[in-house]
Amino acid sequence: MSTQTPAAPDAVLKPRDLGQILDQNFKVFGRSWRSLLPVGLIAAIPGLLMSILMLWLSPDLAAGSFDNPLIRMLAAAEWGDYSGLIALGWGVAVFVIVLLLLFPLYQGALIDVSARAVLHMEPVPLSESFRVGAVRYWPMLGAYVLLALLWIGAIPALILAGLVVLSWITLPLGLVALATFTVFTGHAVIIEQLGPAGALKRSFSLVKTRFWPLLGTGIVYYLLSTVVSYIVAFPFSFVAGIAAAATESFVPFALTSLMEGLVGAIITPFMAVGLTLVYFDTRIRTEGYDLEVMAAQQAVAADPAEFRP
């Protein structure tokens, strides 16, 4: 992923059980937080922009039509003038499309930063990780398009599999299984330099022999992130509700949204490091892969043509 020389691999580069992976996750994050937090903060930007939009549209809960832009748009629509709502709709649509198009680039950079941290590679500027993401942008985009098509096709198939009556069981279970089987797709694109279809196939291949342990690990990480987010965000949401009622303003809710974004800025790279640890652990267990060799290969991947894991 860069021309940086990796540090000597230590005990992190060996098979570990779930407790050891979690322990190593905290150690890696504690050691590399300076390089991980910036990429996490970038993930908080969309939430910040939405908070700003919320404040602009509804600065005051008690505002009338002359003070509230959203109310003015709705009032104009009642008189046949939909230009304000159409402009707002287009703005939101463009915003969402831009986010979707930038997501593969961000994910590529996030995986690169996480892999460097796990493999004890020397930190590099964030721009270098985004350069890696840019180099692999089209394969990443193609992989996510295939994933989206796979999910779209899986939903009706799972509903039919449950004969409609039991679809409320087959649908969530099937989607969780699909998410588990495809969890390493991004890592296969960035770390193993595979194409979209090859990355999906690679993820299925890695997961199939360790499906249940990986599913259990994913559930634990999901619960951990959810509990931490709730513990941190709930007090702010509770206070925001009281403050909003007292001030008749959306500002407390917007600030709460900002706080949730900052919490996500920590959880996002933490989870990415955890997934990267699990990815390398799976490769070791299924392939007996030497991560010291892997780290050396990662260090010369500035030229994708020379990358061969």
UniProtKB/TrEMBL annotation:
Domain (DUF7847): residue spans on this chain: 39-279
Keyword presence, Membrane: yes
Regions that span the bilayer: 36-57, 82-106, 141-165, 171-190, 211-233, 253-280
Keyword tRNA-binding annotated: no
Alphabetical keyword list: Membrane, Transmembrane, Transmembrane helix
Entry superkingdom: Bacteria
InterPro entries xref list: DUF7847 (IPR057169)
Pfam families: DUF7847
Protein name (Swiss-Prot/TrEMBL): DUF7847 domain-containing protein
